[in-house]
Amino acid sequence: ELGDRLPTGFRIGTATSAFQIEGGARDGGRGESTWDAFTRQKGRILDGQNASVSTDHVGKLSEDVTLLRELGADIYRFSFAWPRLQPDGRGSLNRAGVAFYDRLLDELLGNGISPMATLHHWDTPVALRGQWLNRDTAQRFGDYANQMGEVFGDRIDAWVTVNEPATVTFNGYALGIHAPGETLLFDALPAAHHQLLGHGLAVQALRAADVRGQIGLANVHSPVQPATDREADRDAAALYDLLHNRLFADPVLLGRYPDPAGVFENELRFLHEIEPDDLRTIHQSLDFYGLNYYQPTRVAAGAGGPVSPDGSSPAMNRLPFHFEPFREHPVTGFGWPNAPEYLLVVLTELRDRYAEALPPVYITEGGASFPDRADRDGTVTDLARIDYLAEHLLAAVEAVAPGGPAEGVDLRGYIIWSLLDNFEWAAGYTQRFGLVYVDFTDPSRPRTPKQSFSWLQHVLSSR
Ligand code: FCB
């Protein structure tokens, strides 16, 4: 029984993000985000859809909290929509936005669910000129964090400053497959630095507001392998590992940017022109480190293939590397390799690279999309998702168990992406990650718990 194999105190949760589930794009004076603007551009979203209604979480908040209570999970990870709280990205907080999250928090706490809140899950206010390319956005983010700490600091158990700054940098600013759609390649590095600086300023701001919850961030990690043993492939893999993993973990945990060691130094020179004070700001002591894990990556030298798991763009043809498939593993709906053994690898890498600098870890996201269908009687039989989650949960707890390869990592829990089927960014509604099925063709957006929901309910109650 899986429930018996989870260590005592190991916590399980589910996650969502504001832009992906809320809808209510025009409610209560909400401002516009980069993603609202992006989804209006032709050809950006695979199915041509937008998220102005999405799952209508703003209209169905109580129903969603009831689902959470029935599920019995310990933690609910959600995100605050910055444009709902600060429509222009500056100034005092918008009352209607605060009222919405007040209600959510009251309902969560009233039902015994522990809130973990993300301050930036990609929906940056468009009113902030240049968004993350502009250093001032980091200051604005620190200010927003401070006000949020003042208002919600008594009710949030865990704060995540930024979610996956790597994805925002590469998909949003380097490759143009996510908002705001820039194709700057290596010139996107300032967007990485400013998000990291924003993280550091937000940690300081939350501490200044004396919040009672724990503070961390969520980085996506992917174990990187060279496609062959050739030197060029090994260099390309090292570059990708640096860009995707170390660039975002090293400054946060070690207080420095990774050293390219003579390879691709010219492409990365921005990192070595950074003010040392910035690195001190970024290097804050954290209560936990959030790890998002979905898949490993195999990298080969030279352009000519995908370099993002989330889509493609012509800009990719100008990069010195590309991805190769993992033919030995089955894939999820997205075509991502389903490889729980690499969760072991990533936890081991974290321990080896960061040792004592690594705070307690939460896996803040993990999960899979599959082409789920609701049968005539309303059941959604998602056995592949059950296997995926069971295997990943076991891999995580085995990795860190005494004698395991990542022994020493203080792993506190696993948070499943996602509670609900939702707007999967550039893939629109074509990828379903939820434990709960949502019918997007019905204006009332009815929810149907999938079989994985009942399975998890059982795992949780049999602990
Ligand atoms: C992660 C994102 C999350 C969701 C999953 C599938 O990269 O943080 O919002 O889209 O991927």
TrEMBL record:
**Entry-linked SUPFAM superfamilies:** (Trans)glycosidases
One Pfam entry for this protein is: Glyco_hydro_1
Do you know which InterPro entries this protein is assigned to?
GH, Glyco_hydro_1
* Keyword Hydrolase part of the UniProt annotation: yes
* A GO biological-process term: carbohydrate catabolic process
Q: A GO CC term?
A: cytosol
Keywords of the record, alphabetical order, are:
Glycosidase, Hydrolase
Q: Annotated Gene Ontology MF terms?
A: beta-glucosidase activity
Q: Which family does it belong to?
A: Belongs to the glycosyl hydrolase 1 family.
Full protein name: Beta-glucosidase
**Species in which this protein is naturally found:** Cryobacterium arcticum
